[in-house]
Amino acid sequence: MSLLLSSATVQLFRPPYDRFEKYDPALTAVPGALPGAALIWWIVDAERQQDEFDALRDRPYELPLLILLPPPREIGRTLPLINVIGTLHPRAVLPVGAFGAAEHLRHVLAAPPPALAEAAVEHLRRRGVLPNRTVRREVHRILELAPEVPSISKLARRMYTSRRTLGRHFAAAKLPVPSHWLQFARLLHLTIHLQNESTAVFRLAARAGYPDGFTMSNQMKRLIGYRPTEVRQFLGWEWVVEAWLRREGVV
Q1: Which of 34, 91, 28, 101 is nearest to 64 (CA)?
Q2: Within this chain, do residues 100 and 192 fall inside the same structural domain, yes or no?
Q3: 101-122 burial by CB neighbour count: b if 16+ within 10 A, else e?
Q4: CATH of the domain at 225
Q5: Smallest Cα–Cα separation from 235: which of 248, 226, 245?
Q6: Which end of the chain is more exposed for a tag (fewer CB within 10 A), N or C?
Q7: Are residues 28 and 148 in the same domain?
């Protein structure tokens, strides 16, 4: 991101999520430097904030965006931006009263999307990682089935295909092998539970089909570089996807 953002209308929100900070793009010069961070954009005047809009469109993929709307009496000045904010793919669009409520925004950041598989595939599509409809459909199905199937053989049967066929599709798209996608998808679902439940790690691991919490923790560290205790502190799921893509050498 080459531009900006000096205005107080763009804020950085990161652990421990108790305050808002002026956003310095230099902080994100190194990918993965801000796990769990998000950008807060307070829309107040479309004419003055067009440059901010353009810059936020090119923000790092691991930074979700929370957009805060002005009071109703001031909405007229922001309509040109409000009409196109969907192109920024914001995590949430909230009333202005949420701006001062760090705890409320913390819950928004931790909350799972209504359909995790769909949201993750859309993120990967925009990222340019999934090059064709076939692999997008297969990754979507892997993400859907991951909480129920612990092995790639069972996954292939549930998808009414073979391991070889899946492997051929992913190899042709220059993607990690399907078993890696399944391991990652299981951990992505666990990320949501870790951030939204106080259940002990070993219980979540058992519920997800791991033999114990130690095994799950080691796999999480290997796949994304973080332990479950850290995943609980760094909210959101986009940074988890990006961490795994880097570990796999995809980006």
Answers
A1: 91
A2: no
A3: eeeebbebbbeeeeebbebbbb
A4: 1.10.10.60
A5: 226
A6: C
A7: no
Pick from 63, 94, 110: which residue ends a domain?
Answer: 110
Q: Report residue 2 as tokens.
A: 């080459």
**Please, are residues 37 and 11 in contact by the beta-carbon 8 Å criterion?**
no
Residue 1 forms part of a structural domain: no
Q: Give me the residue label for tokens 């991951």.
A: 146
pLDDT in tens, 110-135: 999 999 999 999 999 999 999 999 99
* Domain match, 137 and 232 both: yes
| Model pLDDT for residues 21-69, shown as the tens digit of each residue | 988 889 888 999 999 999 999 999 999 999 999 999 999 999 999 999 9
What total of structural domains would you count in the chain?
2
Closest CA to 88 of 131, 38, 48: 38
**Between the CA of residue 222 and those of 1, 183, 218, what are the distances in Å?**
29, 11, 6
